[in-house]
Design the sequence.
């Protein structure tokens, strides 16, 4: 009888320990904050076949999270709405506000990772900005969707699930700001939107860093350029950004846009040139004049990929111009704004362009 009682007590203790371990395992789920900024992932259409005609930025972030109950199995998630806009309306002030809030959250011990829901139009610019200014190794993931949640074949729910999975993982730590879309994990430095409507629109010239498949993430390469904790840019010390504008080039381009941007107070102009950042014969003296007024001239290429070679198409040393390396014009603008908070020396600006 006594032996049976001991067995019973032992069974109860084992059951209690099992429950305790189960509760402990539950508590060990990563804590992920999802920051809502709007975009298509927060959009709604009139019918299920509206995949391109819809209203963006109408669904609050808490409802977006609630629509994917599977997320609760992989992380403890809470939402926070900072903006409710289409990403084409992002400006420098909003970038800084978002960056400072993300920085605050990353400093909290009860936050393991951040997900930012974002419109796809400028997701690459926000991701690159955060990749340069955040001072934490904790994962930060920017995510969006190409179709609103009301559409047949909506991609937002799985994208969000994958983003939370990545943001809560130890494997994603120390890799800079990431963009997770369409089962792929991209570096915020490299990724760009390449198509107006396809779900596979996001591409990196060197390929994704990894994939998310069947609840598992796998990395196959690492970012080569300095980011986050390795940069001289700190969002906590940035309150404003100098004005940098982009002039898109084409046949028959005139000086009108260059003059207007200089008059508006631009500190640098990204010359988004044809080919290898080419400069039309009528624009060469215009850019020399721009530079003579103290405005930086930075040559980029409208082709979408490849490297702009210094002293290749133009004598950059002679003209005191800068080249973007492999960055497209919109990302070069982000980097130039940050670089100009540190220096106005074109030689130093060139080093920064090559470094990041």
Sequence:
């Amino acid at each position: 009888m006594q032996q049976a009682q001991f067995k019973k007590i032992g069974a109860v203790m084992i059951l209690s320990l099992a429950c305790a371990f189960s509760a402990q395992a539950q508590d060990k789920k990563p804590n992920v904050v999802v920051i809502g900024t709007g975009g298509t992932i927060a959009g709604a259409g009139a019918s299920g076949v509206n995949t391109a005609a819809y209203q963006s930025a109408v669904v609050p972030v808490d409802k977006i999270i609630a629509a994917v109950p599977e997320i609760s199995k992989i992380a403890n998630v809470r939402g926070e709405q900072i903006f409710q806009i289409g990403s084409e309306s992002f400006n420098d002030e909003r970038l800084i506000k978002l960056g400072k809030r993300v920085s605050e959250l990353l400093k909290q011990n009860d936050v393991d990772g951040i997900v930012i829901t974002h419109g796809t139009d400028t997701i690459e610019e926000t991701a690159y900005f955060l990749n340069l200014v955040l001072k934490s190794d904790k994962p930060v993931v920017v995510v969006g969707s190409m179709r609103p949640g009301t559409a047949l074949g909506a991609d937002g729910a799985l994208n969000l699930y994958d983003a939370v999975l990545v943001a809560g993982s130890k494997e994603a730590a120390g890799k800079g700001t990431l963009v997770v879309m369409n089962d792929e994990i991209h570096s915020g430095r490299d990724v760009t939107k390449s198509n107006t409507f396809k779900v596979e629109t996001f591409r990196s010239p060197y390929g994704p860093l990894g994939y998310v498949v069947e609840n598992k993430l796998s990395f196959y390469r690492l970012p080569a350029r300095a980011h986050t904790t390795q940069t001289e840019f700190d969002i906590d010390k940035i309150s404003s950004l100098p004005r940098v504008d982009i002039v898109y080039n084409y046949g028959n381009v005139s000086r009108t846009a260059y003059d207007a941007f200089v008059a508006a107070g631009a500190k640098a102009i990204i010359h988004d040139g044809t080919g290898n950042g080419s400069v039309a014969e009528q624009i060469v003296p215009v850019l020399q004049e721009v530079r003579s007024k103290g405005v930086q001239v930075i040559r980029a290429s409208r082709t979408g990929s490849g490297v702009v070679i210094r002293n290749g198409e133009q004598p950059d040393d002679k003209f005191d111009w800068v080249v973007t390396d492999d960055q497209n014009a919109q990302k070069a603008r982000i980097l130039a704004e940050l670089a100009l908070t540190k220096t106005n020396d074109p030689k130093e600006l060139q080093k920064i362009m090559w470094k990041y």
Residues 2-27 form the longest helix (26 residues). The chain is about 30% helix and 20% strand. The longest strand covers residues 76-85.
